[in-house]
Amino acid sequence: MESSAEELRFSLSEEGFDRSQLPAGSGEPGSDSFRLAVTEFFRRAYRSRGGRVDVAFTDGRIDLHWSGVQDQQDVLERALALIEQDRRPEARSLLETLLQLEPDNGEALYNLGLLCSDAGELERAAEQLERCVAIDPAHGNAWVALGMVGLRANTPERARPALEQAVELEPRNPHALRAYGTLLLMQDEPREAVVVLRRAQAVAAADPTTLLTLAQALIAADLSAHAAEADQLLGQVLQLVPRGEIAEKARRASRRIADHNLRRSQGDGLRPAVVDGLLRALRIYEALSPEQRQAVLVEVAAIGEKGLPVNQPGVNYSLETLSGTFTALELACLIDVGGRLVLEMEKGGFEFEAEYAEAAQRFGSCT
Question: What span, in angstroms and rounded, lies between the C-alpha atoms of 327 and 317?
Answer without folding.
Answer: 6
